[in-house]
UniProtKB/TrEMBL annotation, chain A:
GO molecular function: penicillin binding; peptidoglycan glycosyltransferase activity; serine-type D-Ala-D-Ala carboxypeptidase activity
Official protein name in the record: Peptidoglycan D,D-transpeptidase FtsI
Alphabetized SUPFAM superfamilies for the sequence: beta-lactamase/transpeptidase-like (SSF56601), Penicillin binding protein dimerisation domain (SSF56519)
Intracellular or extracellular location(s): Cell inner membrane; Membrane
EC number: 3.4.16.4
Taxonomy of the source species: Bacteria, Pseudomonadati, Pseudomonadota, Betaproteobacteria, Rhodocyclales
Automatic annotation (TrEMBL), chain B:
Main location: membrane
Keyword list, A-Z: Cell cycle, Cell division, Cell inner membrane, Cell membrane, Membrane, Transmembrane, Transmembrane helix
Name of protein: Cell division protein FtsL
Function: Essential cell division protein. May link together the upstream cell division proteins, which are predominantly cytoplasmic, with the downstream cell division proteins, which are predominantly periplasmic.
Membrane topology field: Single-pass type II membrane protein
SUBUNIT field: Part of a complex composed of FtsB, FtsL and FtsQ.
Native source species: Parazoarcus communis SWub3 = DSM 12120
Length: 587, 88
């Protein structure tokens, strides 16, 4: 075995140099210094002053993404959709980036359904941002995206659709392009319906895909759904009955409201003329107006039952108290009040049935202006109902101190005072219920208040119901308001329109009533503005609308008939000539 | 001493690999979650559109028109109706 010999090169004499020791130390020190500087710098950058680099790094891969929130849906009381938001896209461009070949521009213009010249004009604008088209259907937007044009971008948006169209238009209102409420329920319940978009910070990889959720900055909050009190079926009935009356009577406008007697919910609310909320080009103010809430009118005779109610309530009259209304004229101060027909001596019940002005005024004269004012005020006239609906009108009810005797007289039959249709409908709740008034509600009520503000005693309300049933029956002013199978009650109104301080020969015909009388469930108020096809009495114009709505609604609600159905089919002999000529009374 | 070092190095390497693997797993799962959420959102949108479609088809005006015109239906006249009293 050979012993290994080691050769140590550092002791190689050839390499041996006599160098001063400080040189190697200097190099060593310099190297140490360099590395100390590097360590110091990296400590400074990573430990002490690290915000800048962190921010820079994050901006390379971290992104804040917006999380969209949807607007709440509006449904009717049965959950049928009335307003739904669905996503659409908006196409926008950065004009300086959008250098399109003529062929590309033509393709894009075709997909956007605009003129090439117009598209060129928009892309030639000197702004940094132009919308090319808003609210494009998703599949169409997909096709535009597939063109992969430079400078053309898309943005997600929501569009509101109203499947009910013009039937529901006035109640729902509509939203703006930004999906914010502009009118109606959309505006009134904006806070609840509007969603709040959230945002979150994420890490994206090279291909732009989100790989990690860093934090949720703000969680998105979807808008809440709102269930209205409206009943889609009744609303449709009300709308179609109103539309039919508008054409038959060539009226300028009309409005209908249906209330649930037990809960105070608004079951239907229709206006004419109307509009299609899905296509709002060329809208006029007249179409947009929700007359039920925002228009006030002089109600005319529909006011009379309240005076009769006051008279019975105070015990100054009984239902069978006789009042002499002859000779059908009456002078107060310099003005003369008259009945359209002479009636002679009538009972209080007959005054309501025949709608006698003189009789009503004679009752009203037993009260001070203050007492009458208080009644009107309690009934909710003169102040908005505050349902939260935009633009609610309060009507005009002057303070009692300023009433002259003639004004007190005319107010008793509904002139010189103005109300909105919804106020009038609500006031009739006092008769349909046992004399109390409920607050109304546009949204579904789960637990209705058991009783509201008491206006009349239950006994007076019952007596008034009988009188109003007579008014809608044979010998009353509105036999056309009758519904086969159900007992109905109600009062007509025919008022001259006030224009420029003078009464004109234009009319507002109205009918407010309820059914079935044995246990009222619905209050229906109808108002037709300027019927101009010959007839203008409330009983002839608004009465049939009431009848149609009540008939359909009661059947839709499954309410049992409370009147024997006259078997017209079984009557073989020709019917008698109309037994009692309809007494169609003015005012 | 050497052996202990080797074991520790091996452990460190193993744990580092574990971190890499679990990070990868987490990203993959997150990607899947993200896709499912997008799908859920898409389905919700589709549901809204279907509801919209349903209420458009079932609009009362359309139903009435079809009933009257295509099916020839009409509301029964008074004599044709029979009212049944509930037995008490």
């Amino acid at each position: 075995m050979k012993k290994q010999r080691t050769v140590t090169f550092n002791h190689n004499p050839l390499l041996k140099r006599e160098l001063p020791a400080w040189r190697s130390r200097l190099v060593l020190m310099a190297l140490l210094g360099c590395s100390a500087a590097l360590i110091g710098r990296s400590l400074y950058l990573q430990g002490i002053h690290n915000e800048f680099l962190q921010a820079k790094g994050e901006s390379r891969y971290a992104r804040v993404l917006e999380v969209p929130a949807t607007r709440g849906r509006i449904t009717d009381r049965h959950g049928d959709m009335l307003a739904v938001s669905t996503p659409v896209r908006s196409i926008w461009a950065i004009p300086s980036d959008a250098r399109l070949e003529p062929a590309q521009a033509r393709q894009l213009a075709k997909l956007l359904e605009v003129d090439v010249a117009e598209l060129d004009a928009r892309l030639g604008a000197s702004r940094d941002f132009v919308y090319l088209k808003r609210q494009v259907a998703p599949d169409e937007a997909e096709r535009i995206a597939a063109l992969k044009l430079p400078g053309i971008h898309q943005q997600r948006e929501y569009r509101r659709f109203y499947p009910g169209g013009e039937v529901m238009a006035h109640v729902l209102g509509f939203t703006s392009v930004e999906d914010r409420g502009q009118e109606g329920i959309e505006l009134a319940y904006e806070k609840l319906l509007a969603g709040q978009a959230g945002s979150r910070r994420v890490i994206r990889d090279r291909r732009g895909q989100v790989v990690e959720d860093v934090e949720s900055i703000r969680p998105p909050r979807d808008g809440q759904d709102v269930a209205l009190a409206m009943d889609g079926k009744i609303q449709y009935l009300a709308y179609s009955a109103l539309r039919e009356a508008m054409t038959t009577h060539r009226a300028k406008a009309g409005a209908v409201v249906v209330l649930d007697v037990r809960t105070g919910e608004v079951l239907a609310l229709a206006n004419a003329p109307t509009f299609n909320p899905n296509n709002r080009a060329n809208l006029t103010g007249a179409q947009l107006r929700n007359r039920v809430f925002t228009d006030t009118f002089e109600p005319g005779s529909v006011m009379k039952p309240f005076i009769a109610g006051l008279a019975l309530e105070r015990g100054k009259f009984k239902a069978e108290t006789s009042i002499d209304t002859s000779p059908g004229r009456m002078t107060i101060g310099t003005a003369t009040i008259s009945d359209a027909h002479r009636h002679g001596v009538l009972t209080v019940a007959q005054i309501i049935q025949k709608s006698s002005n003189i009789g009503t005024v004679k009752m009203a004269q037993q009260f001070s202006p203050d007492e009458m004012w208080r009644l009107f005020d309690q009934l909710g006239f003169g102040a908005p109902l505050n349902l939260g609906f935009p633009g609610e009108a309060g009507g005009r009810l002057r303070p009692a101190k300023s009433w002259r005797p003639i004004e007190q007289a005319t107010m008793s039959y509904g002139h010189g005072i103005s109300v909105s249709l919804i106020q009038m409908a609500r006031a009739y709740l006092a008769f349909a219920r046992d004399g109390d008034l409920l607050p109304l509600s546009l949204v579904k009520v789960d637990a209705p208040p058991a009783a509201g503000k008491q206006i009349f005693s239950p006994k007076v309300a019952r007596e008034l119901r009988t009188m109003l049933e007579m008014a809608a029956g044979p010998g009353g002013t509105a036999p056309k308001a009758q519904v086969p199978g159900y007992r109905v009650a109600g009062k007509t109104g025919t008022a001259h329109k006030l224009e420029g301080g003078r009464y004109t020969n234009k009319y507002v015909s109205s009918f407010v009533g309820f059914a079935p009388v044995s246990d009222p469930r619905l209050v229906v108020a109808v108002m037709i503005d300027e019927p101009s096809a010959g007839q203008h009495y409330g009983g002839a114009v608004a009465g049939p609308v009431f009848a149609r709505i009540v008939e359909g609604s009661l059947r839709a609600l499954g309410i049992a008939p409370d009147a024997p159905i006259t078997p017209l089919q079984l009557a073989r002999k020709p019917a008698d000539p109309a037994p009692i000529a309809a007494v169609q009374e003015s005012m | 001493m050497m052996r202990l070092d080797a074991v520790l190095v091996a452990l460190v390497v193993a744990s580092a690999l574990g971190v890499v693997a679990s990070q990868h797993q987490a990203r993959k799962l997150f990607g899947a979650l993200e896709r499912e959420q997008t799908r859920a959102h898409g389905l919700e949108v589709e549901w809204g559109q279907l509801q919209l479609e349903q209420s458009t088809w079932a609009a009362h005006g359309r139903v009435e028109k079809l009933a009257r015109e295509r099916l020839g239906l009409s509301a029964p006249v008074q004599g044709q109706m029979v009212v049944l009293e509930p037995q008490s």
